[in-house]
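Researcher: Go.
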Amino acid sequence: MIRKAVLPVAGLGTRFLPASKAIPKEMITVVDKPVVQYVVEEAVAAGITEIVLVNHSLKKAIEDHFDVHYELEAELEKKNKTALLEVVRGIVPAGVRVISVRQGRPLGLGHAVLCAREVIGDAPFAVLLPDVLVDAEGVTGGNDLSRMLQAFEAHQAAQIMVQQVPMSRVDQYGVVSLGGPAPAAGQSVPMTGVVEKPKPADAPSDLSVVGRYVLPARIFELLASTAPGAGNEIQLTDAIAALIQEQSVEAYRMLGATYDCGSKIGYLEATLRYGLRHPELGAPFRDLINNL
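Model: Structure:
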């Protein structure tokens, strides 16, 4: 079983300036939790027990969030704030380990994943982009990531999560090409290629990469030999394209919804969606919206 996941959190978050000038974009809250905590919870719900944060020295707040805060816990215990104490202690569930490694230079997503090589070792692993929320509301039988892990085990093929987007927006994403019809939601089909941010006229499909991957350890060797691509960065997409030439790689079409919390409008949509169904704040939040 796949138990390890890499979260590349070293990026500077320029799309979210000025909010991300002093606060890591991954620590900006959706309702009452940082975005990165939702992503870790998604991984844990899928059976991941080891989270590898690929971080930057200026973003220590992310590591601190997943560390023990003894003084805060002692104060909450002293004041008999049991519910809050349980919330704080539950940020990292029992049996889950969070490890941090550094990406010294901003050389791209592919380089960030490569920085986790020594911790991951020779086992297959998941990659979750920490500013992308994948919402499992209404999805039964496990979240999308858990289905991807199952598909990897069953097919022995890397899994790339995709969703359909308007052709006018394909130049914002990695886009996959397929050997046949597009998969139904919750299903995987073989890919024949993937390109980073193609022009709409050149796009091989309207299926964009969402920000969830399940990859074999072979990807590390391919990343190590991948030349800088788009933006003069080492692109994970380019290494996946090379992997396709060697072994089966599949596009998994998501069942849930996704919100790009690295963009301001995506963040606002996520806040609305998660806020409206919050167990304590949902009803008054809906009243507030109606009043506005």
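Model: DSSP finds eleven helices and 13 strands in the chain.
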